[in-house]
Specification:
The chain is an all-alpha fold. The chain is built from 15 helices and 4 strands. The chain is globular. Bound molecules: protoporphyrin IX containing FE.
Length: 358
């Protein structure tokens, strides 16, 4: 039997049991429209790239990281000084987290402005909002794991925020901390969230997200869709994937350059008894929310300013989740107002972040 026949035999055997050729046929027939907004189609797979890097570097770090009060900070120190390539793996993991979150923001803002959540993609958007929350939760739980003064103080501030929510707030803070105060239990709990609960939740929602994207294909710009404009279409496989790979190479190049030249520092081990260091700030992606909370007065009409601020932020997240249903006439006046709100939100987030940094 010739090698060619042997290969065909293997392929047929595999296909009969997996239906792989149907998947390849689907990917070959899937088309990506080329228009002025096509650039945003690269943002989703960029997030997938950084998530994959997080999983791979995370698998390595988990072999050497020790989630206990006594050993957490020391084990990160050992990763940076004793484990072969440990410092670069930790640096890539730390920077790729920021890159992933930055691309989630770019992805959702581009979809908000191009209204790519309109019918039939409402559920894609809603699954996306869950992905946003899980991605930010990854950042928040990961930040505590080096267990140094900065991460402890920022986690104290962060886990204290739910406390100002009426009825469930105190329970929320206790649930996050694993008790009244931050202790070793908090570290174990955050480690559990970071390496088991959140990965499972994110992968489930990602599967839903990707399934819905394959089902509906890529959206067209609103105006073009209404004029039934025709666009040049690119086969997803191999043409569009090759282009995505060029983008991935570029992004990996930037990530490694930043990770090599700007590796994250490691402060001394956190001291639960010590007062919080001055000027504590959360990671960059929470700064606009942090500054928003700070500008609220301590009380408004006998209600704590924090409570009002947190309830307004929660209301904002709920409205954001149902945005596709609220913006159900995207071409009408309401739709235009919602686009203006999107731009206003971008300006607000940038101004609040800059203000917080100053
Ligand atoms: C872990 C985070 C996420 C990953 C890995 C992801 C991945 C993807 C991918 C690969 C696509 C197809 C290509 C593209 O348009 O870029 C896509 C499309 C989409 N995503 Fe996401 N996404 C994430 C988060 C979000 C978020 C936070 C939202 C909204 C709040 C969202 C809403 C959508 C919508 C509505 C589409 C369809 C766009 C269209 O058809 O033009 N995604 N996503």
């Amino acid at each position: 039997m010739s090698i060619k026949n042997f290969k065909i035999g293997i392929q047929d055997w595999l296909d009969e049991r997996s239906g792989l050729s149907n998947v390849i046929k689907f990917l070959r027939e899937k088309k990506i429209p080329q228009h002025k907004h096509s650039i945003w189609y690269y943002t989703g797979s960029a997030i997938l790239l950084f998530f994959t890097i997080q999983v791979i570097t995370g698998f390595v770090l988990v072999f050497y990281y020790n989630p206990t009060l006594e050993e957490a900070n020391k084990s990160v120190g050992r990763i940076m000084t004793e484990v072969p390539f440990g410092w670069i793996i930790r640096s890539v993991h730390s920077w790729s987290a920021s890159f992933m979150i930055a691309f989630v923001f770019i992805h959702l803002l581009s979809i908000w402005i191009t209204k790519s959540y309109r019918k039939p993609r409402e559920a894609t958007w809603m699954s996306g909002v869950f992905l946003l929350v899980f991605t930010l939760a990854f950042g928040f739980t990961g930040y505590l794991l080096p267990w140094d003064d900065l991460s402890l103080a920022a986690t104290k501030v962060g886990t204290d925020i739910p406390r100002s929510i009426p009825v469930v707030g105190i329970w929320g803070t206790k649930f996050l901390r694993g008790g009244e105060d931050i202790t070793g239990d908090t570290l174990t709990r955050f480690f559990g969230f970071h390496v088991s609960i959140l990965p499972v939740l994110l992968i489930i929602l990602l599967a839903v997200h990707i399934y819905l994207i394959q089902k509906h294909g890529m959206s067209l710009p609103l105006a073009a869709e209404r004029k039934k404009e025709k666009f040049v279409e690119l086969p997803f496989w191999p043409n569009f994937v090759y282009r995505e790979m060029v983008v991935w190479l570029f992004l990996v190049g930037i990530l490694f350059s930043v990770a090599v030249f700007l590796p994250p520092s490691l402060e001394k081990a956190a001291d639960l008894m010590a007062p919080a260091p001055e000027g504590i700030k959360p990671e960059w992606y929470f700064l606009f929310l942090f500054q928003t909370l700070k500008i609220f007065p301590s009380t408004i009409l006998f209600i704590s300013g924090d409570t009002i601020a947190v309830l307004l932020i929660l209301l904002g997240v709920i409205l954001f989740f149902f945005l596709p249903l609220i913006d159900n006439k995207p071409a009408k006046r309401k739709g235009k107002i919602i686009t203006v709100i999107a731009y206003a939100f971008i300006v607000y987030a940038i101004v609040m972040t800059a203000w917080s940094l100053m």
